[in-house]
Amino acid sequence: MEFSTKAETLQPNQAGALLFVFTEAAQLGHETAQALARSLEEGQNFTDTKIPASDGLQAVAVLRLKDFDRAALNKAASDAAKWAQNQAQVNVELAPFCEVNAPRVAEALAAAFGNAAYRFDRYKKEAKPAKFETAVFHSAHADKVNAALAAAEAQVYGQTLCRDLGNAAPNECTPEFLAQTAKAEAEKLGATAKIIGKDYIQANMGSFWSVAKGSTQDPYLVELSYFGAADKTAAPTVLVGKGITFDSGGISLKPGANMDEMKFDMCGAATVIGTFCAAVKLKLPINLIAIVPTCENMPAGNANKPGDVITSMKGLTIEVLNTDAEGRLILCDALTYAEQFKPRAVIDVATLTGACIIALGHDVSGVMGNNQELVDSLLAASKAVDDKAWQLPLFDTYKDQLKSNFADIPNIGSPGAGTITAGTFLSYFTEDYPWAHLDIAGTAWKSGGEKGATGRPVPLLLNYLRNLA
């Protein structure tokens, strides 16, 4: 899909579908658009029709905005996107909006258009791609709108990559596939990539290796680097993503129902890869590193057992009480690995706990960390793009739930506050830098009839990185 701008109002003979965005009907100069606008009932934002044209029928739609809050914009844009995905070309009229609101509206619409047009059908005999190909935004503030469209295009690019990786079947999206895809995508955009194999992991990352060793698939540690800041030596921001390409639970085997969805347990990694590539595509003036530990969690004769004691890269010993609490075991070594970069901040992203769904549902990601300024920045970025997140506490008293008679810490806490005790576990490995943890177990994918990866929280993280620029 392509987005572009024109510094002119929509012409009466403009080819393609027409979308008029407005706040008051009097702002519209198109006769059909005025009639549609006046037909809107209270609480209705969108309607459309078709009118005769030289080559048949032309689609015309109107979208009424009452609020420029991003949540309201996203909701309105989603309504328009359902219609737009069935049009080959859409011309969007933004004449009623000033230089502040025109780019905000354009960015929300473009992001919604891109996500509505997403399809994942590469395993199907007959693919049915969206008809949507191009969107042209007409505004007197073309330069500012064009910058907003570039941001939206990068976000859609990152979300599409994230969703493609998440939706891929686990027999295709193995740890090697995930690592090689991350490397290829990063290098295609001009960034650098390094893939570290199992020999290093086995020798240096005992916690990570303890999870990986039960699978016939080799584990990998992926390191992506981009130095876009004027000072290439400035401390980088580091993103760390959990890359369990399939999670059976290991010896603590998961129930069989819906276990197919455990292919989505690498959505933290997919988010980090998508966000990294989106930031590079935008050429943000920042230094950025992405770290992805990736492996499978499988039952086997040599797999982790409840009661095993393992040694992490940091030197802390861990008692494995539940092999299905494996994400934190690979993340803790990746978070220790991140220390070498002397980061300005580290943000890890993981489908870490089912408890997060109990606490926050499927629309809100959980956030916690050891640095309130960093957490506040993530929450502000979340609100600005309506990629919802909520802070959970990390009081020292939660450490009382992480006691082991046989090791420094166990990999699960005593009952209650499961999301927070998982974050507390990670906090033992992040004491040397500002750190935040995003638990996306409820937001990374949808189940049921809409089953599939969502591409969240790429919008949140990309907006956070844009704010650093």
From TrEMBL:
Q: Which GO terms describe its biological process?
A: proteolysis
Coiled coil ranges? none
Q: What is its EC number?
A: 3.4.11.1, 3.4.11.10
What InterPro entries does the record tag this protein with? Leucine_aapep/pepB, Macro_dom-like, Peptidase_M17_C, Peptidase_M17_leu_NH2_pept
Membership in a protein family: Belongs to the peptidase M17 family.
Which superkingdom heads the taxonomic lineage of this protein's source?
Bacteria
Q: Where is the active site?
A: 254, 328
Query: Which key words are in the record?
Result: Aminopeptidase, Cytoplasm, Hydrolase, Manganese, Metal-binding, Protease
Give the SUPFAM superfamilies listed for this entry. Answer: Macro domain-like (SSF52949), Zn-dependent exopeptidases (SSF53187)
Q: What does the entry's cofactor note say about binding and number?
A: Binds 2 manganese ions per subunit.
| Binding locations of Mn(2+) 1 | 247, 324, 326
Presence of keyword S-adenosyl-L-methionine: no
Q: Which cofactor does it need?
A: Mn(2+)
Kindly list the places in or outside the cell where this protein is found, as annotated in its UniProt entry.
Cytoplasm
Q: Which GO terms describe its cellular component?
A: cytoplasm
Provide the catalytic activity annotation: Release of an N-terminal amino acid, Xaa-|-Yaa-, in which Xaa is preferably Leu, but may be other amino acids including Pro although not Arg or Lys, and Yaa may be Pro. Amino acid amides and methyl esters are also readily hydrolyzed, but rates on arylamides are exceedingly low; Release of an N-terminal amino acid, preferentially leucine, but not glutamic or aspartic acids
Q: What does this protein do?
A: Presumably involved in the processing and regular turnover of intracellular proteins. Catalyzes the removal of unsubstituted N-terminal amino acids from various peptides.
An example molecular function term from Gene Ontology annotations: manganese ion binding
Class in the EC hierarchy, top level: hydrolase
What name does the UniProt record give this protein? Probable cytosol aminopeptidase
Q: Where is the Cytosol aminopeptidase domain?
A: 322-329
> Major location, coarse class?
cytoplasm
Q: Which residues bind Mn(2+) 2?
A: 242, 247, 265, 326
